[in-house]
Amino acid sequence: MQVLPVITTTDINIESFRELPSPEELLTSIPKTDAQADFVTKARNNIHRIIFGDDPRLLVVVGPCSIHDLEAGREYARRLVKLAEELKDRIYIVMRVYFEKPRTTVGWKGLIMDPQLNGECDIPEGLKIARCFLREVIDIGLPTATELLDPITPQYIADLICWTAIGARTTESQTHRQMASGLSMPLGFKNSTDGSIEAAINAIKAASQQQTFLGIADNGRASAVTTKGNPNCHLVLRGGKSGPNYSADQVKDYAKQLKAKGLIPAIMVDCAHDNSGKDPAKSPAILEEAVQQILDGNTAMIGAMVESNLQHGAQKFPQPLEELTYGVSITDPCLGWEDTESCLREAYAKLAPRFQ
Ligand SMILES: O=C[C@H](O)[C@H](O)COP(=O)(O)O
Ligand SMILES: C=C(OP(=O)(O)O)C(=O)O
């Protein structure tokens, strides 16, 4: 009998597989306390109330474009919690604790994907670091915000997250809309990179519905997951190729479009990305405009996002790790700490009439 050669038709482009712990194993080895769970629940509820107009405070999601240095992240959180306490009666502050970065082409994809910043991509270690750091931020006293990019990640960290973004590059993806429909926290869909909001509006609609999709269960088994739908989704305006999209007329128009589709007219303005042309010096004026729209009676405006770090700007990456400057972003340029403090204090002062 002639023996036919074995012809391989799969894994031709795969170099290796590396097993992850199951979500259950990671959650057991890095558990959350009842106090942390209670904090997350209360923070999500506060955000829910702001989205639905039951809490007049401005929701501000502020912090580094990405966390790459845990010590700098801790120092940032320790500073931010003091400011959050000072402003808490008019502004509800949530810290950006971003571990997954979507890239336009290629680049460092965040601390979960590459925790050693050296291309080794030790994802099991990245997931551990992310969980531990989220717990630290909660213990410091700050609600946590992130972008969820890989649909397997939430099972490992979402119990410690209070608000999530689905980014401009993934809002149109069915996978991400399905994932969002099962997430437990309030969530903002960003408009597309071309500036259009249709995909984000469709995403909010899709994520509010029941969905069945392929995911993983707590024991790590690939599973068909059926969701209930996430009622706490809103729009985030981040500008686009044709420029900013946060003017009073645009916000009113988008709120009208949301209402026409039976969705909550709740809109957050991203003071970075294509709204600022990635110039963080422009972020304070965008924040001020968002506050002005609230004072002018636009009830759809619920919040703002600010990319901020200990130091202003960004540094080139990759470069030798020992040459990185402390407190400077290695992804998008950020507003420095002093300017962050002063623009949030100004927003607080300007919001006074709303609370009289
Ligand atoms: O906020 C982060 C970036 O804008 C996003 O991750 C894309 O980055 P890139 O265009 O540098 O790849
Ligand atoms: C990647 C981000 O934003 P966008 O999806 O708007 O580009 C971000 O906020 O980090």
Automatic annotation (TrEMBL):
Gene Ontology CC terms: cytoplasm
EC number, UniProt record: 2.5.1.54
Pathway assignment: Metabolic intermediate biosynthesis; chorismate biosynthesis; chorismate from D-erythrose 4-phosphate and phosphoenolpyruvate: step 1/7
Domain of life: Bacteria
GO biological process, one term: aromatic amino acid family biosynthetic process
EC class: transferase
NCBIfam families in UniProt: aroFGH, PRK12755.1
Its biological purpose: Stereospecific condensation of phosphoenolpyruvate (PEP) and D-erythrose-4-phosphate (E4P) giving rise to 3-deoxy-D-arabino-heptulosonate-7-phosphate (DAHP).
Family: Belongs to the class-I DAHP synthase family.
Protein name: Phospho-2-dehydro-3-deoxyheptonate aldolase
Organism of derivation: Cerasicoccus arenae
Gene that this sequence comes from: aroF-1
